């Protein structure tokens, strides 16, 4: 079908002015944050209800039109890129609170709700939605669920998966399923809800989600510590975690800190420059907690695991210290980074990081590396920056070669080639480094069951 035919047919189904064909819309909604693939969608549709989504999917099945779901478009694996004349299904207008239950401490929202809006709604009710990351101001709940987003609080609160009580989905066949219905206990066979969490839109569209909320943390406090080595970072983690409940434990390199402070004119946390920095967050509900934190800090200093440190004294200082970590991605985005988010079990992090670092430095000495990540859950972000004199296409090709070796190292350590960003197009060729041939066959069988005509986000994650 031509784009104009698609527009006329869909507007008859979901309403006038719900489909766009103009170049601006095709460019905006056909891409995500990746820069490797150019957008080339056929049309852009804007549903407002689950029934609208169902009609679009049924139309797509009848006419063999591929669909790419589009949320906040903050993905880093090209999972929301439409580069092959697909119909883009945009969730921007499905952003309402459907229901809230203060007794159950749960809220049902449409899939297009912005993460930050959900956090604000929870705060208005005296509650807390803890899944948080730098793109919270633009990412959407449906997209977060589709990629099982993690972020900066995983060490205490877990991944997005841990907060999803129920889902309403439209499958690739065009059927509406209400999954789990908000229940905490429901042992009635396969939990299909969890198949859609992390499926990257390959099985269907998440139109509504029932989300669990929790109590608001009290008196959050941040420490930033200068650390001489990754092995010392792990000793700091063990020391604090054995005694205190941490809400976050992040790390970043001196290179990352230097770029952030220069680009944003932020103050360094202290004068001492160290190879790595650890950021710890905890609830300081009373003086006893603060006393314990200071005792542990002194213990780390005595053991030479920490060379310097600072602790927040108020909310402004807390936010400023967090900015040193959270502004890294935005800062390096101006230098065309090639990003990889990798994970291993926490105890293997130092040896793994050293192995990757050594390989990249020896094989590609002109490439600048920026490390940061969620060290408390074993998630490392490897960022390779493009040399100024290297063509972008050539740079990405070289990095593709780098990735194959890095992922082989990751496989040897029993890790994952995608800790939280998903597979999409960027890592599809490398899925076998984390999944066995048997697992991939089962994944393909699941895909075929929910999407037999292969219209849902085709080419993402799996070849079929």
TrEMBL record:
Signal peptide: none
Obligatory cofactor(s): FAD
InterPro entries, alphabetized: FAD-bd_oxidored_4_C, FAD-bd_PCMH, FAD-bd_PCMH-like_sf, FAD-bd_PCMH_sub1, FAD-bd_PCMH_sub2, FAD-linked_Oxase-like_C, FAD-oxidored/transferase_4, Oxid_FAD_bind_N
Keywords: FAD, Flavoprotein, Oxidoreductase
Domain FAD-binding PCMH-type positions: 37-216
Keyword Membrane: no
Pfam family, one: FAD-oxidase_C
Entry's family note: Belongs to the FAD-binding oxidoreductase/transferase type 4 family.
Name the record gives this protein: FAD-linked oxidase
Native source organism of the sequence: Marinospirillum insulare
